[in-house]
């Protein structure tokens, strides 16, 4: 293989730039020509493709977002769009592709792979919702941002003796809420994986207050089947205690990537370049038990994510 492309797609995640940097520099080191594709699959369909060099990825490691830009392409979800994307790669003589993104991006990568393109999927999403890897690029930074927010909210919640609900992202995955809740000392976390019981939740808040707790911090994952406003109102009415809502939204997606995210991104990017230089079949690259792994792409996407029940139960114990 002589020429490869790299793109970022779906929601941006801190660490994507570090991954692009590693793909470009390690690819060139291995004798490959590396092309950057702007705006994800959408830019691929439109031929927004330019050759990159070592200097094109200078000074980006520490930046959040993605220098290649990103998009959620509706056209790429159609059979025609996928064929068009594959034809564009062929037109540019690009035989291998590194696709950095979440679940949708990796499924798109699999579709291209079925048309003969060798694709390396890198897990770039704050959601940590990909089953084949212990962590995704961006997750650690997002949780660190949420922890910082919890600490600040804790000060004011405690001064005013209020309940505060902090809504975090994650789509249908509760990992951001789980890790931030455990490490931030939340009283309660609500995640899509575990059905919640409003009576038990409110009982706990009232009893905690009776036992001298000044405030309750509740981390709610966005994927839970109740609107955050509605939940806030319900808790206020049932507990008789002032209850406030903080929605962290895109704050969680921006900012400087942490060491862990830069490291994971760099190691995954380097592995992708190595595998493409060796003409490997399509893979999903990630980390398991601290090691970099590369699974068959189709197999990786069939794996089912397990929610960490032990961590969840620990929050129950620690928050009493
Ligand atoms: O997948 C990352 C993510 O931030 C999710 O947590 C969230 O549900 C979604 O993207 C938001 O998407 P958008 O950027 O389209 O608003």
Automatic annotation (TrEMBL):
<keyword id="KW-0808">Transferase</keyword>
<keyword id="KW-0418">Kinase</keyword>
<dbReference type="GO" id="GO:0061621">
    <property type="term" value="P:canonical glycolysis"/>
</dbReference>
<dbReference type="Pfam" id="PF00365">
    <property type="entry name" value="PFK"/>
</dbReference>
<feature type="binding site" description="in other chain">
    <location>
        <begin position="125"/>
        <end position="127"/>
    </location>
    <ligand>
        <name>substrate</name>
    </ligand>
</feature>
<dbReference type="GO" id="GO:0006002">
    <property type="term" value="P:fructose 6-phosphate metabolic process"/>
</dbReference>
<comment type="function">
    <text>Catalyzes the phosphorylation of D-fructose 6-phosphate to fructose 1,6-bisphosphate by ATP, the first committing step of glycolysis.</text>
</comment>
<keyword id="KW-0067">ATP-binding</keyword>
<dbReference type="InterPro" id="IPR012003">
    <property type="entry name" value="ATP_PFK_prok-type"/>
</dbReference>
<dbReference type="GO" id="GO:0048029">
    <property type="term" value="F:monosaccharide binding"/>
</dbReference>
<feature type="binding site">
    <location>
        <position position="244"/>
    </location>
    <ligand>
        <name>substrate</name>
    </ligand>
</feature>
<dbReference type="GO" id="GO:0042802">
    <property type="term" value="F:identical protein binding"/>
</dbReference>
<feature type="binding site" description="in other chain">
    <location>
        <position position="222"/>
    </location>
    <ligand>
        <name>substrate</name>
    </ligand>
</feature>
<dbReference type="GO" id="GO:0016208">
    <property type="term" value="F:AMP binding"/>
</dbReference>
<feature type="binding site">
    <location>
        <begin position="72"/>
        <end position="73"/>
    </location>
    <ligand>
        <name>ATP</name>
    </ligand>
</feature>
<keyword id="KW-0479">Metal-binding</keyword>
<feature type="binding site" description="in other chain">
    <location>
        <begin position="250"/>
        <end position="253"/>
    </location>
    <ligand>
        <name>substrate</name>
    </ligand>
</feature>
<dbReference type="InterPro" id="IPR012828">
    <property type="entry name" value="PFKA_ATP_prok"/>
</dbReference>
<dbReference type="GO" id="GO:0005945">
    <property type="term" value="C:6-phosphofructokinase complex"/>
</dbReference>
<protein>
    <recommendedName>
        <fullName>ATP-dependent 6-phosphofructokinase</fullName>
        <ecNumber>2.7.1.11</ecNumber>
    </recommendedName>
</protein>
<keyword id="KW-0324">Glycolysis</keyword>
<keyword id="KW-0460">Magnesium</keyword>
<comment type="pathway">
    <text>Carbohydrate degradation; glycolysis; D-glyceraldehyde 3-phosphate and glycerone phosphate from D-glucose: step 3/4.</text>
</comment>
<feature type="domain" description="Phosphofructokinase">
    <location>
        <begin position="3"/>
        <end position="276"/>
    </location>
</feature>
<dbReference type="GO" id="GO:0005524">
    <property type="term" value="F:ATP binding"/>
</dbReference>
<feature type="binding site">
    <location>
        <position position="11"/>
    </location>
    <ligand>
        <name>ATP</name>
    </ligand>
</feature>
<feature type="binding site" description="in other chain">
    <location>
        <begin position="169"/>
        <end position="171"/>
    </location>
    <ligand>
        <name>substrate</name>
    </ligand>
</feature>
<keyword id="KW-0021">Allosteric enzyme</keyword>
<keyword id="KW-0547">Nucleotide-binding</keyword>
<feature type="binding site">
    <location>
        <position position="103"/>
    </location>
    <ligand>
        <name>Mg(2+)</name>
    </ligand>
</feature>
<comment type="similarity">
    <text>Belongs to the phosphofructokinase type A (PFKA) family. ATP-dependent PFK group I subfamily. Prokaryotic clade 'B1' sub-subfamily.</text>
</comment>
<feature type="binding site" description="in other chain">
    <location>
        <position position="154"/>
    </location>
    <ligand>
        <name>ADP</name>
    </ligand>
</feature>
<keyword id="KW-0963">Cytoplasm</keyword>
<feature type="binding site" description="in other chain">
    <location>
        <begin position="213"/>
        <end position="215"/>
    </location>
    <ligand>
        <name>ADP</name>
    </ligand>
</feature>
<dbReference type="GO" id="GO:0003872">
    <property type="term" value="F:6-phosphofructokinase activity"/>
</dbReference>
<dbReference type="InterPro" id="IPR000023">
    <property type="entry name" value="Phosphofructokinase_dom"/>
</dbReference>
<dbReference type="InterPro" id="IPR022953">
    <property type="entry name" value="ATP_PFK"/>
</dbReference>
<feature type="active site" description="Proton acceptor">
    <location>
        <position position="127"/>
    </location>
</feature>
<dbReference type="InterPro" id="IPR035966">
    <property type="entry name" value="PKF_sf"/>
</dbReference>
<dbReference type="GO" id="GO:0070095">
    <property type="term" value="F:fructose-6-phosphate binding"/>
</dbReference>
<feature type="binding site" description="in other chain">
    <location>
        <begin position="185"/>
        <end position="187"/>
    </location>
    <ligand>
        <name>ADP</name>
    </ligand>
</feature>
<feature type="binding site">
    <location>
        <position position="162"/>
    </location>
    <ligand>
        <name>substrate</name>
    </ligand>
</feature>
